[in-house]
Amino acid sequence: MRPEEGIVDGGTLILIDGEGFMSGTVVTLGGFRCESVKILSSRQLTCVTPKHEVGWVNVQITRPDFVKAILISGFQFVPRPAPVITSLHAAGSTKAEGPETGGQVLIFLGQHFVEEAEARLDGMKCISSYLISPSELECVTPAHAPSVVDALLTNPDGQTTSLSKAYTYVKVVKPPPAIMKVYVKGTVDSTTGPAKGGQELVIEGKDFQTGAVALLDKNQCSTTTVVSSTEISCITPAHAQGVVRVTVTNPDTQMAFLENAYTYFLDPSFKSIDAYVLPKCVKCHVKDYFKGSYASYDDIINGGHVVKGDPTQSKMYLRVSDPNAPMPPASDPALSQEEVRAIYDWILGGAQNN
């Protein structure tokens, strides 16, 4: 018999010498039928070994007329050999390197790979492993930080092989973001909003990454939502009145700017006036100041500085709007027209504590 041994997975083609072989002869090894029996002559036949456990087995030949012949311990089933990795390369390339993001088809070359073999890179299981042949296996790479890593392959029987420094993960250099346009959602090109914030802006551009952060001037949006690589939704934060730039920063720290992209106006609410106007007034109009305190809403209302609904009869408005005696005094920063208008509109609207 040649050869006298084969692996436990079967599939070994053996040649048996003897005599009296005829068509219909059955061959068994350890009680399991040999496959693809072919009678070459009355003295010689071939067959393909079945699967079997490790060990020596009897070889039995049975003719159609039930005449049998047995060869005691005539064939040995041996463990399958351990796998061996000889090299790796990316599909369609001769190089064993790929992106840190993973997802690349990587080819393992070697010997003795079997079905359900598991491939790993630096201990991380491939997204999928597919056996092409006993000497070739396809692996879809997992994501990994840029570095040189070892490759590992394990057959289902637990036999393992590795190849040191077999694959290189390469850092992916992503393009920087760019801002093309900023506008208020629901409009075509409006770029103004209240100082109190809370307005939804659409930031259009390209190469926005998941996790990007948007800012107006130096204030981060209350909520930043990356809708796609070309669009971000931003809920505006509170900010002093004025024109600001919009900034988008990707997680990889690359940034984009659009100067003069959005204008904050002072909305006619006490909250905005208290935050952005009154700090210019309370330097003088503090508690118990003989001309009256602007330190709080109650001080302004109870001190008679405002006639709700009528700015023309309100001391507060008349003081800040008088061109001959402007308040604050000339030694301090003056109120802008927008700030004066906000006080007027707030009083006209009933001077609510809003």
Structural features:
354 residues; mainly beta; Immunoglobulin-like; 4 domains; five-stranded mixed β-sheet; 4 helices
Question: How is this structure best described in words?
Answer:
There is one protein chain. The chain has 354 residues and is mainly beta. It folds into four domains: 74 residues, Sandwich (Immunoglobulin-like); 87 residues, Sandwich (Immunoglobulin-like); 88 residues, Immunoglobulin-like (Sandwich); 79 residues, no CATH class. Helices cover 9% and strands 43% of the residues. The strands form six sheets. A five-stranded mixed beta sheet has the order 1-8-7-3-4, with no helix packed on it. Strand 21 and strand 22 form a beta hairpin.
- How much is the radius of gyration in Å? 42 Å
How many strand segments? Answer: 26
Largest sheet properties: 5 strands, mixed
Number of helices: 4
Instruction: State the separation between the terminal residues, measured CA to CA.
Output: 100 Å
State the shape.
Answer: rod-shaped
* CATH structural fold name of the largest domain: Immunoglobulin-like
